[in-house]
Amino acid sequence: MAAAAVRYLRSVRAAPEREPVEMLPRPELRCVGEDERAPVGQAEFRRVLGNFATGVAVVTAPATAGAPQAPGSTDDPQAAAPAGFACQSFSSLSLDPPLVAFMVGRTSTTWPRIARAGVFCVNVLSAGQAELCRAFAVSGADKFAGVSYDAAPASGSPRLAGTLAWIDCTIHAVHTGGDHLIVVGRVEALGASDGEEAPLLFHKGRFL
User: Does the keyword Ribosomal protein belong to this entry (predicted)?
Assistant: First the structure.
C-alpha cells in the first residue's frame, strides 16, 4: 500500500497546477522479531489510548477517472464516486506553511483513491453527526447516499453540510508509521460555521 501511495503521488507531481509532493528519506526502523515479546499488547494499547478523547472528522476527496479497485475486485462501483472515510487522527501541524495531518491504515481501500486525487477536504463533525460518522466508517457501501454536500473551493472535494469546519488541502507529503501512513496536507482554503454547536467527540469506544 505504501508503494502504491508513492506511485500515485509521483504521478500527481507531474501535474503543473498542483504543489509538488515532497518525499522524505525513510527512517531506519526496527521491528519486533518473531522471537521477541512485543513491548505492549494490542488490547492494552487500545484500552489505555482510548482514554484520550479525540474529535472526529470525515476526510473526503473528489472522484477520479481510473480509480484503483480493491484487490481481487473485477468491478468497482465506487470508482466514479467521491471517496471518504471517518477519521479520528486529524490534527493541525504547522502555521508556516499551513499544514495539517491525518493518519490512515495502510490496508485502507479508500486511501488509494484519495492519493490518486492528490487532494482532500477534512470535514470536522458536530455533536449531532454521529450517524454520519458511522456511515463513513463502513467499507463497501455508498457512503454519500443521502448526504448533502457541495464542492470545496480549491480541491473540489465533497464539503459536507452541517459540519463545524472544513479544511481544503493538497497532499504535501506521505510518511510511513508502522501499520499506518501519515498524510500531510497543505491548506489551500478553510472555513468554519457561525453556530455554537459542540464538536463530536470519541472516548473509550463511544461518541460523546
Answer: no
Alpha-carbon radius of gyration of the chain:
17
Q: Which domain holds residue 199?
A: 2-20+47-65+82-207
Do 152 and 189 contact (CB within 8 A), yes or no?
yes
With CA atoms as reference, report the closest residue to 61 among 148, 129, 151. 151
**CATH code (residue 102):** 2.30.110.10
Place of cell 500531510: 184
Distances (CA, A) of 119 to 44, 122, 189, 191, 196: 35, 10, 12, 17, 29
Q: Does residue 20 contact residue 167 with C-beta atoms inside 8 Å?
A: no
pLDDT at 71: 41
Q: Does 40 map to a domain?
A: no
Residues 6 or more apart whose CB falls under 8 angstroms from that of 72 comprise: none
Q: What is the pLDDT of residues 19-28, one digit of tens each?
A: 555 666 666 6
Peptide bond into 97 cis (omega under 30): yes
Q: Cell numbers of 92, please?
A: 493541525
Dist. CA 207–CA 53, nearest whole Å? 9
Counting as low any pLDDT under 70, the low residues of the chain are: 1-32, 65-79
Rounded alpha-carbon distances, angstroms, from residue 114 to 108, 120, 124, 151, 180: 11, 7, 17, 15, 15
